[in-house]
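Q: Hi! First time asking for a complex rather than a single chain. Here are the components, and I think there are two in total. Is that enough to go on?
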Amino acid sequence: MLSTVYTGTLHGLESQLVSVETDLAPGLPFLAMVGLPDITVREAKERIRSAIINSGYMFPAKRITVNLSPANTKKEGSHFDLPIAVGLLVSIGVIKEYAVKDYAFIGELSLTGCIHRVDGALPLVIGLKKCGIHKIILPADNAAEASLVKGVELYPAENLNMLVEHFDRTKEIFLYRKRNEMGYNKKERNHVLDYSDVAGQEQVKRAVMICCAGGHGMLLMGPPGSGKSMIAKRIPTVMPEMTYEECLEVTKIYSIGGRLSKALPMITDRPFRAPHHTVTGAALIGGGNKPMPGELSLAHLGVLFLDEFPEFNKNVLEMLRQPLEDSWVTIARSGGNFSFPCQVMLVAASNPCPCGYLGSRMHPCTCSQSQIHRYKSKISGPLLDRIDLHVPVLPVNYTDLFQKEKASFISSSDMRREVEKARKRQLERYRKHSILFNAQLTSSLMKQYCKLDEKSEELMKSAFKTLSLSARAYSRVIKISRTIADLENSENIQPVHVAEALSYRVPDRNTKEFGE
Amino acid sequence: MSLGLQGEEVAANYLQNKGYQVLERNFRCKMGEIDIIACIDRTLVFVEVKTRRSLNYGLPCEAVTKTKKLHIRKVAAFYVMKNKIGNINRRIDVVEILYQGEKAYIRHTENAF
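A: Yes, that's all I need. Here is the structure of the assembled complex.
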């Protein structure tokens, strides 16, 4: 008998409806699977056979043909086990066909008939919903993750027997309901890290606030032990909470990368990714035979922290150029293009030279000119140009470190309040446009929203010449000024905002005059 | 008489009762062996017989493996060539025989592969 059940297949972040057709014909026992299954799907055959027998049903000794339609797209992933098994059970009459026609199935089978969690459940459920399927049977361990999607009925199943009873109507599976309706972000943020731990460095904290408020990238440069990593690690504590849409988007990427588990079913905190400097291109940008999101995409809507910036492989860093500009990584394969979003805040940290003390008055630099030159040349101009704020980090002085009270330093919650205020202003301003913060401004929107007065214009004109700014750097300075104006609660950009923004673009300022 | 031979005997009788004309039994060449070669309605039928006493190791027909199928195909082609058989339909059947005590169950799968 012929049967049809539904499931989905993933292509990057997109998913497509797949119908699994199962036909039983007389002949020698054989199971043929067609429709471009990959190796995991082909292996499903053995799991399904054992799972069906061990759940107490007969495996049909007939010529079985399973067709995964549409037949021209590759089918990957272990979630095909369950739909194929259900297709077989419908074909042999254990489950009635009319009972399953509104459902879609995803899940991996174990030999005992238990249904195990799969990767990519969230994008699959989103895709199935788009195709008009609203009842989905999925592994119990994936239910919390998939429950981020609104408007679908999720039936978490633990094993094949439970499923058969559900369709028999002898014992129905309860619809999955979130324990807490707003569970995705209602829990109070409780960060272990806080900016009040960082002694002094108020000017760097100010820069962090600007970055978080406008979504700009930053380069921290300073001698060893000045607190660059400490500052960077605390950036997520200042960023505004993720909205529902943002949670959905980030969780989708983690779902495909197989980084969710029962303990961590969804991502509700802004990601902070700090890959080691030995990272390869494929791990940073994304790649692999079956393209997977890399660190850059895993940091989507959060922070990508590259500590020891010049130690990274030069080629790997250069790969960042285009994705940073477009906020999308596109990986081209013969089988099609795979795109992953990467709207990240890039935070890089670096020493000014190999020994770390170039320009310090306290400590002599022991590097030769050629060493310094080689170190600096590791980061190319085009890449530096794309980093909005260049922030010198000075060594901490004794009074700040030991004599001041912890409470006298600005804390994360104070900073976040400012940042959220500035973000709110931006959201209101860009309500009619599809952008959220200043870093996303296009040139036409900039003309509309970043008008400079006469004095500011004058200042920019002279800075453009003396600092030899590029056209891109010019527009970036204006975006930063816009963010500073937002932080200062000012409607228009004023000369003082432009001046502060320019101070973050002064090349090599730190190498000349840091240190007390 | 061994179980296999016993089974082939039963299969041959069964086929004859069904109207098949048995042409060869245990046709051998260096590529392998075909248990029964029979003929019905201008169709040449090559038959593989599988006999079992229990289902502990699966159905008899499940023992017809990929290599076994390949061997049968080759021997069949050789038989056709040797006897210069021209325009006649051919097919390969499997006859399964399952002994349960004194009873024997027979299942005949036509055009099995």
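A: Confidence is low (pLDDT under 50) at residues 509-516 of chain A. Let me know if you'd like any chain examined more closely.
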